[in-house]
Amino acid sequence: MLATWGLSLVLQQLFRQVFGPKEVSVPTVQWLQGAWKISEGLELPLNRIFIIGLTFVIAAAVFLFLYRSRWGLRIRAVTQNRAMAGAAGINTARVDSVTFALGCGLAGIAGSSFTMLASTGPVSGQQYLVDTFIVVVFGGVESLLGTFLSAFAIGQTQISLEYLTTGSMAKAITLLVVIVLLFFRPNGLFATKVRR
């Protein structure tokens, strides 16, 4: 994870040199403009509803891929015990490549969805890097359900605390709570048992 972060810093500087540091806005398609008016004073932007729906569809697709396909079985086998999976005839290098490609595809979908919410530039992802790291570690590195529930819990906690305090204080309190919980459960809340 740290190596990927280091690579991202190199790529950011490369993009700055080639394309410049300017933020770019992507126009939203016509059918995602506007809002859905639920009641007086309560409106939900259509682009955010679309992103929430897309998130559930992608999460379901990843779940089905990991738990209902042969490739998902291979990925889980390599995750649990690489040496034993290799001895059983699984091409671990190819599994690594497929997993990396899947992760890149998900990152691409997330990045293109982000352009519907704000302008984007070479360093747009930096502000979410710490939150992403916290979500994955808190939920359990090898648990898809844990990551999903962790993201929801941390997001709701931060939003709720922002009503009582400032945004930076809400983030600090959330981080403190996560650190305390990780002290008692260092592998995350939904850590899977790894076979050795």
Task: Please specify the SSE layout and strand pairing.
Layout: H1 2-19, E1 35-39, E2 42-45, H2 46-68, H3 70-80, H4 82-87, H5 92-114, H6 126-139, H7 144-164, H8 167-184
Antiparallel strand pairs: 1-2
Helix pairs in contact: 2-3, 3-5, 6-7, 7-8
Structure commentary:
GO terms for molecular function: transmembrane transporter activity. It is found in: Cell inner membrane. Keywords: Amino-acid transport, Cell membrane, Membrane, Transmembrane, Transmembrane helix, Transport. It comes from Pseudomonas amygdali pv. photiniae. This is Inner-membrane translocator. Helix 2 packs across helix 3, helix 3 crosses helix 5 and helix 6 crosses helix 7. With 196 residues, the chain is mainly α. Strands 1-2 form a two-stranded antiparallel sheet. The protein has two domains: 78 residues; 72 residues. The chain is 68% helix and 5% strand. The protein is built from eight helices and two strands, in the order H-E-E-H-H-H-H-H-H-H.
How would you concisely characterize the structure shown here?
With 196 residues, the protein is mainly alpha-helical.
List keywords for this structure.
196 residues; 5% strand; mainly alpha; 2 domains; single chain
Q: What is the succession of H and E elements?
A: HEEHHHHHHH
Classification by helices and strands: mainly alpha
| SS strand fraction | under 5%
Spatial shape: globular
How far apart lie the N and C ends?
22 Å
Low-confidence stretches: none
Query: Helical segment tally?
Result: 8
User: Compute the gyration radius: what is it?
Assistant: 19 Å
How many domains would you count in the coordinates? 2
Give the averaged pLDDT, no decimals.
Answer: 86
Q: Strands of the biggest beta sheet: in what spatial order?
A: 1-2
The number of E-state strands comes to 2
Helix content percent band: 55-70%
Q: What is the makeup of the main sheet?
A: 2 strands, antiparallel
